[in-house]
Fold:
Amino acid sequence: MSYSIDDLKTLMARLRDPDTGCPWDTKQTFRTIVPHTLEEAHEVADTIEREDYAHLKEELGDLLFQVIFYSQLGREQDLFDFDAVVHTLVRKLLRRHPHVFPEGTLESRVDPDNRPTDEWIAASWERIKAEERAEKGETESAQPASRLDDIPASLPALTRADKLQRRASRHGFDWPDVEPVFDKLQEEIAELKVAWQNAQQDPAARDEVEDELGDLMFVCVNLARFLKVNPEQALRRTNRKFEARFRAIEDILREQGRDLDEESLEALDEIWNRVKGVERSHET
Structure:
């Protein structure tokens, strides 16, 4: 027997039943589920980055459950249901992809010998997004709508910095090439050093350190963009690398009957370099 999306919707309704449902599920609201949604999305990303495809369908199912949960809450409050979510999504994607669905229907197709250029597609995407913002009333405020308005403030900081920079770049506000970005990186490092030195003399200058460090990280995101590297993904990759190496140090010391907390920094650094050497030998 293979369960369907309808079975999942039924299960969700049962979990939310006020009389016979799950006590935890019945207490949840839109807001209380948000942390779980973020966690599930990160677990999907982590599974993919580790190439653990055997467990990917399970993690995707957990993420889908979040959508089903929100949809059930929406149905209970007469806001929307899962079918409305699907309908809205399909309608939006049909509209945003005239280069695939020229008549805005699933049945319409483009001529394979007369496909639009990448430049036309990018311009069309921006135009359609602007039309959607206008339809939502976002251009009717007292102040002109910013081209950055639809970039969610709740995104992880590195991801949002990347999106802000990409949006500004589309409208001509960008470095001409990567070389000035490297120069700017060195400039921000120097300014951070000055801010740190000032903070040693005046604790009130700590805010300056935070500002300058933020500027440095923002430039790093710019550099990642020019190097065509996803900054969030790059940092997660480095986190995994650090964790693997640190765990290896712990294992080595444990095998030798030594305590990590009692070792000198020099001894730990020597083992760290040994672990890195093993990594390089495996790469060659």
Q: What stands out?
A: The longest helix spans residues 231-255. The chain has a mean pLDDT of 91. The radius of gyration is 25 Å.
